[in-house]
Amino acid sequence: MGYIYLALAIVLEMFGTTCMKLSDGFSNKLFAAGTLLSYGVCFYFSALSLKSLQLNIVYATWSGLGIVLAAVVAKIFFQESISTPGLIGIAFIVVGVVLCNFFGATK
Predict the structure, then answer these.
(1) How far apart are the first and last CA of the chain?
(2) 45, 66, 70, 105: least surrounded by Cβ within 10 Å?
(3) Each residue of 7-26: b (16+ CB within 10 Å) or e?
(4) Whole-structure pTM value
(5) Maximal C-alpha separation, the chain
């Protein structure tokens, strides 16, 4: 169940970040409200995930997948570019997240 809560936290954080971009510096009140609501709920689900998952796993997965999702959203919805070194860096982050999830947890 912890990974389900974590996935919800990641998706909601990405939604909140997208709303933040669309809020135009919080001048668009609808997107500003979406940002605040999304972040509040994503932290709630993150807290729930921490009941069954270790902090290092949660944070590595959240930040790593968040970077990947942010790059995808930026490219698809905002036509932002990413350099080849940036893509290589993201690939290293994904490898790190996989390693943390498969070999980083100790009880």
Answers:
(1) 18
(2) 105
(3) ebbbbbbbbbbbbbbebeee
(4) 0.86
(5) 47
